[in-house]
Design brief:
Blueprint (H helix, E strand, L loop, with lengths): L6 H18 L2 H10 L4 H8 L1 H20 L1 H10 L3 H13 L2 H16 L5 H20 L1 H15 L7 H18 L8 H10 L3 H26 L1 H7 L13 H16 L4 H17 L9 H18 L3 H8 L4 H12 L4 H9 L6 H13 L11 H8 L10 H21 L1
Helix pairs in contact: 1-4, 2-3, 4-5, 4-16, 6-9, 6-14, 6-15, 6-16, 7-8, 7-14, 8-9, 8-10, 8-12, 8-13, 9-10, 9-21, 10-12, 10-22, 11-19, 12-22, 14-15, 16-21, 18-20, 19-20
Length: about 425
């Protein structure tokens, strides 16, 4: 029994979505309440978790649908949602953050850093902000985000960096990962949503998006690294905290095999969840080469994304109406702005439902969606993964949404120039 095609559930869903967005910008308020009202500190701490916000409001939406349309309609709505992406992000995040994978990437980054004629601390930071985000075009954006965030946390964020550098880093990381996944047609969620329908292969992505994104990523990383080079050289320790021990090639190879298999079957949850269970069994059998798997962090991120899927399913009526009939240049900036308040994959998916659009429309929509992917935590699916790993290094163990927005604006402007002028 589908939800009736009346405007009431959609209007209610839009209001709840707006409240959820406002909540993401108010997490510090709830953290403050936890200190002022210790009797209910548990509840306020829960509501102060960014990863909990959209799951909480998704529950409110489902309860509202039960009251408005009945239990059967609400259950039918949930069963129609596609939760593949939250499950995939959870699995790839846990595997990519395992010690054998992180140690392998650190070794490769060290080798590359030794070839750059500057201090190792500065060179490693530059590679974390440039090469690793571009690696997301091949191992997927969530995996690249996880690896970069772990390396930055252990090698830099735990070294008493200034708040200014921390926010500049996380803002640029989110932007670079968002645009850095456009070298191929299978790694960035907003590209995945349209690639098959619009027949965009990896060669098309590289020639129309990828080289521009790579130019912006390297420019952003170069400017940030140069501007904070003295602080990075003084406080950075790219060896990290315990991920540098010699790793047997067989163990690293098996972990990479699991990661590749999960990426190859990213659209088939039955397969990649089965592989993940095998992965858990392997890590249990070879504990000597493992650290604690980030299962809690991964589940929180998946909860966040699943809530976004539930809330986003009833936003089509106003999003699609906003996108249709807009001139391509205006559409590009509109998509960039809308991405800040809704997942960019949802935005491009809704755009793909519009028939008879021009090539300029398609380019503007996708380019705008990836350009704005670093402005907020909800703008791009991998962002919650990065935030979950890095937030413990910030004051009050939370990332200010306004601070993130302001930090992401400069690299976003560089991305705008790359996609519009190059």
């Amino acid at each position: 029994m589908p939800i009736p095609t009346t405007s009431t559930p959609e209007i209610v869903a839009a209001v709840i979505f707006a409240l959820a967005v406002a909540h993401t910008f108010s997490t510090k308020f709830f953290a403050h309440l936890a200190h002022r009202q210790p009797r209910h500190a548990g509840l306020w701490h829960l509501l102060a978790e960014v990863e909990v916000v959209f799951g909480f409001w998704a529950f409110v939406l489902v309860a509202s649908l039960v009251m408005l349309s009945g239990k059967d309609a609400a259950v039918h709505y949930l069963e129609e949602r596609n939760f593949t992406e939250p499950m995939f992000v959870f699995v790839v995040m846990v595997i990519a953050a395992s010690r054998p994978i992180v140690s392998t990437v650190i070794s490769v980054v060290r080798l590359l850093a030794s070839m750059i004629p500057i201090s190792r601390e500065v060179a490693t930071f530059f590679l974390c902000m440039s090469v690793v985000p571009l690696l997301g075009s091949f191992i997927t954006e969530p995996a690249a985000m996880t690896l970069a965030a772990l390396m930055l946390r252990d090698g830099y964020f735990r070294r008493d960096l200034s708040s200014r550098l921390k926010y500049a880093t996380i803002g640029m990381l989110f932007v670079n990962v968002s645009i850095g996944g456009t070298l191929t047609n299978f790694a960035a969620p907003p590209v995945l949503m349209v690639a098959a329908k619009w027949q965009w292969d990896s060669l098309f992505m590289l020639s129309h998006f990828g080289w521009k994104a790579a130019a912006a990523v390297f420019f952003n990383a170069t400017i940030l690294t140069w501007f904070f080079r003295h602080e990075l050289a003084a406080k950075g320790q790219p060896d990290g905290d315990g991920n540098t021990a010699r790793m047997p090639f067989t163990v690293a190879g098996i972990h990479l095999f699991f990661l590749v298999c999960v990426v190859l079957f990213a659209h088939h949850p039955v397969v990649f969840m089965g592989m993940f269970l095998f992965f858990l069994g392997y890590t249990e059998a070879y504990k000597l080469h493992q650290d604690r798997l980030i299962l809690r962090e991964g589940l929180l991120v998946a909860f966040f994304l699943a809530g976004l899927v539930v809330l986003g399913g009833l936003q089509q009526w106003w999003l699609q109406a906003t996108l249709v009939g807009v001139e391509p240049t205006v559409l590009y900036f509109l998509a960039t702005a809308l991405t800040a308040i809704t997942d960019n994959a949802a935005l491009t998916y809704l755009g793909s439902l519009v028939d008879g659009v021009s090539a300029e429309f398609k380019y503007a929509l996708v380019a705008g969606a990836v350009t704005g992917g670093g402005l907020t935590i909800i703008a791009n699916a991998p962002n919650p993964a990065g935030a979950a790993i890095l937030k413990s290094s910030f004051d009050d163990e939370s990332i200010s949404p306004l601070g993130l927005l302001l930090a992401a604006l400069p690299p976003t402007c560089v991305a705008i120039f790359a996609f519009q002028a190059l």
